[in-house]
Amino acid sequence: MAVFKPENVEDFYEIGEVLGSGHFGQVRQVRERTSGKFWAGKFLKIRKVACSRLGLDRSSVEREVEILQAVQHPNIVALKDVFESRAEVVLILELVSGGELFDFIAEKENLLETEAIEFMKQILEGLRFIHCKNIAHFDLKPENIMLSDKVSKPPNIKLIDFGLAHMFHPGEEYKSTSGTPQYIAPEVISCQPLSTAADMWSIGVITYILLSGLSPFQGDTDEETLGNVIAMKYEFNEHYFSLTSPMAKDFIQKLLMKNPEDRMTAEECLLHPWIKMSYNMVSVCNRLVNLRLLCKDTSSPDPLQRQCESDVEDTESKPASLLRRRLSSSS
Ligand code: ATP
Question: Which end of the chain is least crowded, N or C, by CB within 10 Å?
Fold first, then answer.
């Protein structure tokens, strides 16, 4: 059981700028008074009256804390401490200063498929770890995938926000309809019992967005989006996917499966040829493509080229602004 310290958080930490906000409070940069080290303080308002709509149940915060304590991994935000006052709980978290994954991509001219693979690998490593512990995140989306800092190469991924996460107990049937329409799996919408496979659906959606800048199921309204998910209404629009490798599309298709049991697990994803494709192999492919372009011989594309074409980017069809616009109109 997690220890919620009754002391005043401000006796130990100087409260700084707001880093972000969620439904139940703010995340602020905080500075530890003894060491001078920076952390992120997640300030969560606690519901005082059971029937009130303001604030969170203390039990939900306890669950988030318990899960964070159980998932110590390089690709998951670390929890340092928890303080509790009458009206709020403050989680002291590792400061993740590189911003959201999608801001990083939006700032770049283009995203190479090799870079997408690197990001996905780290996300999957974190997921494999939590799924092995029978924990599902249930709120995977670009806003909850951050970069540890702006300098590491390749950037280091951190999964955040375990507010909807759930730890499964043996034989337990768990249902929930929470989540963000664009990313939730069909079984969430149809109120079926859930498993870690619901996260794998979200991974399929995130990969689709990473490679195209488009959100596969997004409609004009949440209802329309949910309807598209239930109807499995998505396609690889040729304009945005013409240069995406068949392996990447296969990876997405094996995640966007209606039956949760048919979806790849995180473990299986890490063994998928697209994820295993090495930098060396990609750069050899790129050289071949470049050579072919130089020779102006485009009449008979070979399979190897098709697999790696996406590394010769189509910046015209995947501008950062498109990525942002599409995502910002979502949640
Ligand atoms: P929601 O209501 O959307 O589920 P939440 O209240 O659970 O949100 P988080 O998603 O954990 O809060 O955090 C809100 C925002 O604060 C994040 O999108 C991110 O921008 C920022 N943030 C969260 N944790 C950290 C961290 N450890 N370091 C830096 N920024 C963070």
Answer: N
CA distance 28 to 290: 47
pTM of the model: 0.85
Q: Is the CB of 95 under 6 A from ligand 1?
A: yes
Nearest to 131 by CA among 263, 293, 320, 296: 263
Smallest CA separation from ligand 1 atom 4, residue = 22
The tens digit of pLDDT for each residue in 213-251 reads 889 999 999 999 999 999 999 999 998 898 899 999 999
- Phi, psi values for residue 144, rounded to 5°: -105, 15
Q: Given ligand 1 and candidates 13, 19, 56, 71, which is best to mutate, with the most ligand atoms within 8 Å of its CB?
A: 19
Query: What single-letter amino acid sits at 228?
Result: N
The pLDDT-based confidence of 109 (bands split at 50, 70, 90) is: low
Residue with tokens 């392996």: 247
The domains of the chain, with CATH numbers, are: 14-31+38-94 (3.30.200.20), 99-279 (1.10.510.10)
Q: At what angle do helices 279-294 and 113-132 cross, to 10 degrees?
A: 160
The complex scores an ipTM of: 0.96
Token output for 59: 């039990």
Q: How far apart are the C-alpha atoms of 40 and 80, rounded to whole Å? A: 10
CA end-to-end span of the chain, whole Å?
33
Closest atom of ligand 1 relative to the 158 alpha carbon = 27
Nearest CA to ligand 1 atom 20: 20
**Ligand 1 pocket, residue 117 CB under 6 Å:** no
